[in-house]
Amino acid sequence: MFIDTAEIHVRGGDGGNGCVAFRREKFVPRGGPSGGDGGHGGSVFAVADPALNTLYHLRHQKSFRAERGEHGMGSNRHGRSGGDVVVPLPLGSVVRDAETGEPIADLLAAGERVLLAKGGNGGWGNQHFATPARQAPKFAKPGLPGEERQLAIELKLLADVAIIGFPNAGKSTLISAISAAKPKIADYPFTTLVPHLGVVAGDDSRTLVVADIPGLIAGAHRGAGLGIRFLKHVERCRLLCHLVDASGSGDAENDVEVLEKELREFSPEVAARPRVLVASKIDAVSDPDRPASIARAAASRGLPFYEISAVTHRGLEPLTHYFFDSVSREPSAAGRS
């Protein structure tokens, strides 16, 4: 199951209390203070795990609490510090404070480690409070509580190319033809209900990641269809591959304009991202003027244009070569919100 939002509670471990103790040894009737310090509480960290691609593992585990530090002991023995807790998150996870909205982490690199909740410091034992005027302090410092917060986590997929288009435009068929991804494919709208990622291998050992974004319709930025829930997954992509169904009928200008408007309404920055216009299902054309109208729409916008059939693999090689050439010229997704 694809889950791209989650809310969790994290708490660092409390620090252990300092100890009140005195030396009690033979022939030392008035031993000085010997209370040890409390151990520090463990902290909670988020770590980017490339093996994950969804937040499903947080569906049932909502709370993460680090271990508290042990209390100090006599004979100047310090308490053991509490163990840390790690929350694994997929690449592209954005972590915010659920109450204030303050950004805490944006995990873009495998193994990246970010502090979510710091453990409390351990308290001082009474040995620290001895002075010439107070040689037998009967008090110690308690440990501090660990940091506690409620966090909202949002996953924005990291992909080089986002395949966008109306429902049933052939997006899933394309990603299954150029990669090893196997999304559900059927001849009805909204077959794809969640994004799929596929890795495309180039001729020179290069690879790129392609995302199949569920179909968009007019009003998607306001929540129509599957809404903006999945539009956010195109924010980090370097190239937009806009598929237009060539097997339909009529002028394609309106179809292209509707999707462009949805992108602009959602994010002008995303709408300005490099884009290639692709006429899909070219093997099933029923209206000869349809592919020509898609080509005209691309020309009027100064966009690259390709005709493909994912079923017969016609035109796929030139398109994937364009993907690699275009992505190599664009900055990486790192730093994009």
Distance between the termini: 24 Å
CATH architecture of the largest domain, please? 3-Layer(aba) Sandwich
Helical proportion? 10-25%
Return the CATH topology of the largest domain.
Rossmann fold
Quick one: how many beta strands? 14
User: So what's the oligomer here?
Assistant: single chain
Work out the radius of gyration.
29 Å
- Tell me the count of domains: 2
The biggest beta sheet is recorded as:
6 strands, mixed
Rounded mean pLDDT score: 86
State the order of secondary-structure elements, H for helix, E for strand.
EEEEEEEEEHEEEHHEHEH
* CATH H-level superfamily title of the largest domain: P-loop containing nucleotide triphosphate hydrolases
What gross morphology would you assign? rod-shaped
Write the layout of secondary structure elements.
Elements: E1 5-11, E2 44-48, E3 63-65, E4 85-89, E5 93-97, E6 103-106, E7 113-117, E8 148-155, E9 161-165, H1 171-178, E10 196-201, E11 207-212, E12 239-245, H2 253-266, H3 268-271, E13 275-280, H4 289-301, E14 305-307, H5 316-329
Parallel strand pairs: 1-3, 2-4, 9-11, 9-12, 12-13, 13-14
Antiparallel strand pairs: 1-8, 2-7, 5-6, 5-8, 10-11
